[in-house]
Design a protein that fits this description.
Two copies of one chain form a homodimer.
Chain A lengths: L6 H16 L3 H16 L7 H16 L6 H22 L5 H11 L13 H10 L2 E4 L1 H10 L2 E5 L5 H13 L3 E6 L10 H7 L6 E4 L14 H9 L2 E5 H8 L7 E5 L3 H7 L6 E5 L20
Parallel strand pairs in A: 1-7, 2-3, 2-5, 3-4, 5-6
Antiparallel strand pairs in A: 6-7
Helix pairs in contact in A: 1-2, 1-3, 2-3, 4-8, 5-8
Chain lengths: 300, 300
């Protein structure tokens, strides 16, 4: 997915937040912002938001010397999610449609996003969020696809969210081999292998790194090992906005599971901001370069 | 008040919004954002946010050829406020403390700010906002000050807000000469003379321009005529964040009436975001340059 002009102020705000998490030194905040603004000027060098985001947060890491400014926030998010786990599991088991409930729990975990909801009273909002239905839900198609599947790849998103994903991983792992992929290094509040382990994911899935350090699985930046897993998996579930931005144009079949938090993502998915989506992509065959799917060929 | 790093992403977001209001041409949006990012890089040339805001919106005006991108929004805000006027007046009259009610109505008018609340369901929120008490309210001191006052200057903020200000203007004009100052030209959704006339302010106060086109009355950029009014008025009420940012360090007595919408403003006023404030400044005598009020003089 292209980088939108809307991403520029949003990324700049996030970089300042990260710089302040890393240090109280205001001189360093100024330097980080100077470099970040300079990088915004070069935004056309980046073809999707996760790539620019990675580059901008590299400035924070370099100037503050802190490799993981969100470390404390991620730990807090994971602890909070683990504390809420009994409540989550209670919700997940209260309906006969266990898959639907597990998908909804996993999508709702996306609210555990400190980068966006830093002052959220999680416990107060959780039940209300869980009760919200999907605006788009391709669960029926997924249920057909899953019957033929052996290996399922889930590409995770935020650290706290990984706890919520366990319900879905548990459901899927009963009859399938499940792989849970995470970022290769700390980037905003996204889950790394360490975070996934803290969240307890290892009990339900094999944890792997995408090899990519952007906050979205940008395929060309992923490791050969991960690319092989991605190509070889019978089903792929991509979680969150960053992975959607990175994978929305992929030629393989992917189910996107997320809450649309920004207007541009919501528009691309044809839903409203704050709505939940479980959507199978329609790009079974990749379009020729420079020609969008469904585009009219000149002269035809 | 100084320009904060937090202002940079916020102003960039607002410039994109203004560019889109002015034209649908995405090439022009790109050009505007390129120049805006370039200007952000020079942010140290601007000592307060209203000045940088003015300069950034000048890019939108220049590149789109549209002098007032918010014209439609302002007209809508004024119409909405006029439609709500009976409700507002009903609220204002339902308590014996007419001054307090008038101040609260005027402060609540600050919610009519399309730049921040573009999707707000105004009617649904209005009553709830009106019911919120002030977090800081220097009404008692104001009541003493007003007894000695002849001429009162109110520096207006947003266009729709001017309708809400009429209740306060009516109250004050019963025993005082009231002047209502507005921006010299269109800048975001702030009121100009034309907007104040549409809002019906002329029935209660003399409308003047500050001579300044920034979204805050930056004194050195105001006309000599306005500066004389500002210096000569017995009481000054400054409305909204932009005027607070421009006037927070002034040496004369000013009452600030606003809703704190941004964390930095809230922090400066020692309140929470979204709280209402009616606060007399404490800077009766201006501090020497470079030395903050209350600062310890070295060696003393």
């Amino acid at each position: 997915m292209e980088l939108f002009l809307d991403c520029l102020p949003c990324l700049l705000r996030q970089v300042l937040e990260a710089a302040r998490m890393a240090t109280d030194d205001e001189i360093i905040h100024e330097r980080v912002m100077d470099e970040a603004v300079q990088m915004l000027f070069m935004h056309r060098s980046y073809d999707c938001a996760p790539k620019l985001c990675e580059a901008m947060h590299a400035i924070v890491k370099k100037r503050t010397g802190i490799e993981d400014p969100y470390a404390k926030i991620k730990d807090k998010d994971i602890s909070e999610a683990l504390r809420l786990e009994p409540l989550i599991r209670c919700f997940a088991s209260r309906n006969d449609d266990m898959l639907l409930q597990a998908l909804k729990v996993s999508a709702t975990g996306n609210v555990m996003d400190s980068a966006l909801y830093k002052d959220l009273d999680i416990e107060a909002c959780l039940m209300a969020e869980l009760e919200k239905p999907f605006a788009i839900c391709d669960k029926d198609v997924f249920e057909k696809d899953i019957q033929k599947a052996k290996q399922i790849l889930i590409i995770g998103d935020n650290a706290g969210e990984a706890v919520f994903d366990k319900v879905l991983l548990q459901y899927l792992s009963a009859q399938h081999e499940v792989i849970y992929a995470v970022r290769d290094a700390a980037i905003i509040n996204d889950a790394t292998v360490e975070d996934a382990l803290k969240a307890g994911v290892a009990g339900y899935a094999m944890i792997v790194s995408t090899g990519c350090t952007a906050p979205g699985a940008v395929l060309e930046a992923c490791s050969a090992e991960f690319q092989a897993i991605f190509d070889g998996a019978d089903l792929v579930i991509s979680k969150g906005q960053g992975n959607f931005e990175a994978l929305s144009d992929t030629s393989r079949r992917v189910y996107f599971l997320l809450k649309a938090k920004c207007p541009k993502i919501a528009n691309a998915l044809d839903v409203e901001v704050d709505e939940y989506v479980f959507k199978k992509n329609s790009y079974e065959i990749k379009a020729p370069k420079g020609l969008a799917i469904g585009a009219k060929i000149p002269g035809k």
